[in-house]
Amino acid sequence: MVRGLRILEDPDLAAARQTNSLAALALTLGLVVAGLYLVDVLRTTAAEQDCALAGRADCLVVAAR
């Protein structure tokens, strides 16, 4: 094994790889945020439906909690 050997890398390739990594990170974060929003919407809808199936008339108040 040779120590101190530096592999020269094309700066354009390094920049492209970094850009692709940042784009993948942004996409992943976007999907996480969208998933959390979807979970919140589904939870609210389920609470409204449970309230309506129980025969209550004030279901909007329950859904606001």
Folded structure, characterized:
The protein is an all-alpha fold and 65 residues long. 75% of the residues lie in helices and 0% in strands. The chain has helices at residues 11-53, 59-64. The longest helix has 43 residues, at 11-53. The radius of gyration is 25 Å and the shape is rod-shaped.
How are the SSEs placed, and which strands pair?
Layout: H1 11-53, H2 59-64
Order of SSEs = HH
Q: What's the number of helices?
A: 2
Q: What gross morphology would you assign?
A: rod-shaped
Query: Which spans have pLDDT < 50 for at least 5 consecutive residues?
Result: none
Mean of residue pLDDT? 85
Radius of gyration from the alpha-carbon trace, in angstroms: 25 Å
What structural category do the secondary elements indicate? mainly alpha
Percentage of residues in DSSP E strands: under 5%
Percent of residues in helices comes to: over 70%
Distance linking N and C termini: 64 Å
- Biggest β-sheet strands, sense, barrel: none
What's the count of strands?
0
Quaternary: single chain
Give a nutshell description of this structure.
The protein has 65 residues and is mainly α. It has two helices and no strands. The mean pLDDT is 85.
